[in-house]
């Protein structure tokens, strides 16, 4: 049966990188038997400009009806501060919550060809393969109350609330342990349980969940130490499970160990495996429109889509091999360019991946 994929390019480089991912999807449809049809809808700043709001009801409905969603990125200076293309009531966070996408998988995998592009020494990152499992629909990004209020003395005060219920922690814990069972059977839960009661509960629940996975070794780490350990000895980690905000920050950090934030894909899954797929980076207004953004994180997000939502493992592996192949050819966008390699733009990188699908 033909699967439906909803494309949400969004803003800034989102438009450029999704165009390259679409080339890959089209090649898989034309030449490799992928039964897929795509539709495109508005989200983020583009939707604000066209309809007055960042998440039109029609977009949410199309996303619900689709088998999977591919998102570029949203936001930009035009819609900041307090970027309304992202905020929980309706923007990107509203889309994630509206689809129930509580489990965000962010694999920090080093392609060996990019060892010299990593911020760490090649011997420290060789073989790096971490799966960051980030809780995506709770925590401080969603907690109530929130806002900016004026105190009696006239001073203004900003406030946000970190909230997790046991069931929210348990389901993300189970997602992380299930993934660990298919990997090296080690989960490191990252919290700040020495200061925040909310994450004291998080730790308790993780310990409880671990009892159902006797083969998996559970460890705990405070987030400040985890941030340091990631740049000291990242290969100590297999699966890291953490809160929405900590996972947001740690995954951007981990991306640089793989060469660039332009290399990290992600899958955001609901309880039934339906998902939205997106690079972990944002709309990169500083390079938008220049044709230099790295499309590989988005193309690798298509591979995750094929694996997790469309049941096409062989085609997912084909994309990942193609990415490896273009790196073998020495092709690099500016963010991963190193001496002796060939600098290419966004479109040429996308075309090269399409050509390498045949290998
Ligand atoms: N999922 C989403 O839609 C996200 C949206 N944002 C939004 O994006 C906008 C920009 O946010 P920033 O904090 O600047 O984060 P960003 O991730 O957009 O950019 C950070 C830095 O990484 C570079 N970069 C990002 N992706 C790249 C790629 N594919 N190739 C080469 N270089 C790349 C950018 O040029 C920039 O120097 C903001 O409006 C923010 O709210 C931020 C993060 C995620
Ligand atoms: C809405 C933000 C949390 C976007 C972001 O930075 C991310 O998901 O990585
Ligand atoms: Mg982020």
From TrEMBL:
GO molecular-function terms, A-Z: 3-isopropylmalate dehydrogenase activity; magnesium ion binding; NAD binding
Cofactor dependency: Mg(2+); Mn(2+)
Catalytic activity: (2R,3S)-3-isopropylmalate + NAD(+) = 4-methyl-2-oxopentanoate + CO2 + NADH
Span of the signal peptide: none
Isopropylmalate dehydrogenase-like domain mapped to chain residues: 4-353
The entry's keywords: Amino-acid biosynthesis, Branched-chain amino acid biosynthesis, Cytoplasm, Leucine biosynthesis, Magnesium, Manganese, Metal-binding, NAD, Oxidoreductase
Cited SMART domains: Iso_dh
Coarse class of the protein's main subcellular location: cytoplasm
Entry keyword Metal-binding: yes
Positions with a binding annotation for NAD(+): 76-89, 282-294
PROSITE patterns: IDH_IMDH (PS00470)
Amino acids binding Mg(2+): 224, 248, 252
Amino acids binding substrate: 96, 106, 134, 224
Any one GO cellular component localisation term in the record: cytosol
Alphabetical list of InterPro entries matching this protein: IsoCit/isopropylmalate_DH_CS, IsoPropMal-DH-like_dom, Isopropylmalate_DH
Site (Important for catalysis): 141, 192
The protein's assembly and partners: Homodimer.
Family assignment from sequence similarity: Belongs to the isocitrate and isopropylmalate dehydrogenases family. LeuB type 1 subfamily.
Protein name: 3-isopropylmalate dehydrogenase
Organism of provenance: Thioalbus denitrificans
Gene: leuB
């Amino acid at each position: 049966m033909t699967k439906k994929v909803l494309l949400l390019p969004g803003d800034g480089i989102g438009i450029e990188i999704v165009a390259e991912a679409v080339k890959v999807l089209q090649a898989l449809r034309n030449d490799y038997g992928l039964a897929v049809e795509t539709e495109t809808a508005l989200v983020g700043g583009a939707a604000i400009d066209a309809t007055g709001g960042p998440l039109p009801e029609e977009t949410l409905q199309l996303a619900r009806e689709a088998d999977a969603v591919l998102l570029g990125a949203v936001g930009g200076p035009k819609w900041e501060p307090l970027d309304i293309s992202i905020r929980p009531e309706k923007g990107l966070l509203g889309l994630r919550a509206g689809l129930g996408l509580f489990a965000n998988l962010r694999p920090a995998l080093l392609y060996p060809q990019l060892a010299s592009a990593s911020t760490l020494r090649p011997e420290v990152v060789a073989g790096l393969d971490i799966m960051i499992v980030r809780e995506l629909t709770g925590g401080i990004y969603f907690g109530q109350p929130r806002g900016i209020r004026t105190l009696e003395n006239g001073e203004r005060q900003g406030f946000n609330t970190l909230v997790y219920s046991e069931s929210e922690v348990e389901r993300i814990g189970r997602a992380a342990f299930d993934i660990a069972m298919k990997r090296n059977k080690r989960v490191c839960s990252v919290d700040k349980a020495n200061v925040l009661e909310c994450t004291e509960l998080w730790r308790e629940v993780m310990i409880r969940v671990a009892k159902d996975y006797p083969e998996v070794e559970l460890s705990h780490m405070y987030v400040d130490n985890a941030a340091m350990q990631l740049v000291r000895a990242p290969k100590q980690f297999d699966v890291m499970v953490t809160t929405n905000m900590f996972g947001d920050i740690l995954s951007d950090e981990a991306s640089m160990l793989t060469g660039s934030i332009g290399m990290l894909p992600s899958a955001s899954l609901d309880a039934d495996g339906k998902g939205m797929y997106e690079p972990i980076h944002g709309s990169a207004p500083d390079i938008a429109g220049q044709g230099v953004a790295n499309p590989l994180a988005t193309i690798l997000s298509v591979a995750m889509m094929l694996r997790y939502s469309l049941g096409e493992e062989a085609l997912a592996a084909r994309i990942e091999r193609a990415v490896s192949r273009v790196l073998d050819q020495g092709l690099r966008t500016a963010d991963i360019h190193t001496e002796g390699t060939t600098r290419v733009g966004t479109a040429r990188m996308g075309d090269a991946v399409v050509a390498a699908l045949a290998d």
